Amino acid sequence: MELVTIDDIRAAADRISGAVVRTPLLPCPWADADRPLWLKPENLQPIGAFKLRGAQNAIARLDERSRSRGVVAYSSGNHAQAVAYAARTFGIPAHIVMPDVTPQVKIDNTRGYGAEVVLVPIAERESAALELVEKLGAVLVPPFDHPDVIAGQGTIGLEIAEDLPGVELVLVPVSGGGLSSGIATAVKTLCPGARVVGVEPELAGDARESLRAGTLVDWPIERRARTIADGLRSQLSDLTFAHLRAYLDDIVTVSEDEIRTAMGVLATKGRLVAEPSGAVGLAAYLSRVGDLPRGRTVIVVSGGNVAPSLLADVLGA
Amino acid sequence: MELVTIDDIRAAADRISGAVVRTPLLPCPWADADRPLWLKPENLQPIGAFKLRGAQNAIARLDERSRSRGVVAYSSGNHAQAVAYAARTFGIPAHIVMPDVTPQVKIDNTRGYGAEVVLVPIAERESAALELVEKLGAVLVPPFDHPDVIAGQGTIGLEIAEDLPGVELVLVPVSGGGLSSGIATAVKTLCPGARVVGVEPELAGDARESLRAGTLVDWPIERRARTIADGLRSQLSDLTFAHLRAYLDDIVTVSEDEIRTAMGVLATKGRLVAEPSGAVGLAAYLSRVGDLPRGRTVIVVSGGNVAPSLLADVLGA
């Protein structure tokens, strides 16, 4: 299987420059002295999550004729908003298929970026999306299972390597594996001495189990859906699994309580609003000291789209 | 009176580069179409506030021999942490005089950066600081009333002009006037078409009154202390007043409720934790539409050191 290369990631960086925020590394003076810490705040992208990088790159890669017919995506989460927002920067139509149980605020946000939202029963979202692709001649933008999406997310790793060449550990959330594949590819290529470790909720620890088993392990959705980290309920694809086997050093898991605590620390000490999925890296840093190498550490805060009530709740705890 | 120049600010930028975060401009897709909005998140500096820029520049400007004897500051707020943190980057001692009523968390934070904290009755803090200066041969770093501090804060304006040369409006909090003086100097010099407007709480609207009157107006501290924005209770000095008269276009004021609402919007839509003082710019943007010019707007989010309970409170409201 052909893997994404550092050249693909460099090309993606040129392509998406100006359309995404080049996030800084934020030093954390409150970190342990022997594990100096920087946060990579991808929650500060305009849509509140890293997903914009992959969507922007995937759409930029289309030839102009295909692109003009628009794009389709199915998602109830950050990918929906990423595709809608990216499509608007190209002035092309976006059709987003969402389950009819999607919270109204996410529907409104996606429509707010100018997308056409199509609500369908949850079991029909894939088929509805493929129907739209067929009918409109539009292109489907997948959330993680595509080289252009992986290369786009990989630009985060490129920026880490540029800003902190002596990085020793990068902690990155793992769900479908687009983000972790891209970042691991970039960081391990540019900083071979660094370790890249994925982080999953214990309650959705399927990627960890797959990597240990050496083969993709299936956890039914009801099992993965138990975690509060709603962005980390997807499973690896063959493509992302191949990247993680090639480049990822390890995966650790964190508990739901550890995730909530980390959200609170990010808010009070990092002044960042993170969604649960965006806080798993810090949860591992705070709670899995024994399982992680020491040294200069970067944590990818992947997103910040969280219900105000949940944020208030972790602050009050 | 000699004012800080753009050359002073450029020199400050070179001097503090690497020691402070070069914060990005964050585009806000949720803003009004005719008032496109970017946030300048100075709450993401390592100490959680812009104050680091001025302190770092002021200490860098000292000759090595004076500097080696250390620095002194009196403050219970962000300036204390800024001087402590900056001194540590130079490996020199910092002595911070704080009122003995200062909340323990602020004392701990300042000590955490390696500073010696001296607690005194509130009325004695200035004299205690001057005594330390005398005794140690150390240098006093003032919170705003100094050209080097103003030039350091002005680097924010330089970065705004670099990143968005077509900026039309900059909203900046006003307290002692160091931040607003520096930013107004940089922005009005580099982008003469832009307007720079200060924002104050109504309950601490002394700078607005001073600018209208054309002379420094004194509000007793009990009157200024009513606002929730604890970082905006200082008054202008002759030096900062002169800068604001030369460069600031206007000052608007916002209510306490408007500040709280803006804190909530920054958290939920901007994914940023702001202290009340850091939210006044957005409060003006949201609530003073009629008083502000339209067009490309930058809001300086000056700091994010807020009690978790207050943040939880504005989120639950």
Automatic annotation (TrEMBL), chains A, B:
CDD domains assigned: Thr-dehyd (cd01562)
Alphabetical list of InterPro entries matching this protein: TrpB-like_PALP (IPR001926), TrpB-like_PALP_sf (IPR036052)
One GO MF term attached to the UniProt entry: pyridoxal phosphate binding
Keywords: Lyase, Pyridoxal phosphate
Keyword Lyase included in the entry's annotation: yes
Keyword Lyase: yes
Obligatory cofactor(s): pyridoxal 5'-phosphate
Example GO BP: D-serine biosynthetic process
Domain Tryptophan synthase beta chain-like PALP: 16-303
Family per similarity comment: Belongs to the serine/threonine dehydratase family.
Name of this chain's protein: Threonine dehydratase
Native source organism of the sequence: Prauserella flavalba
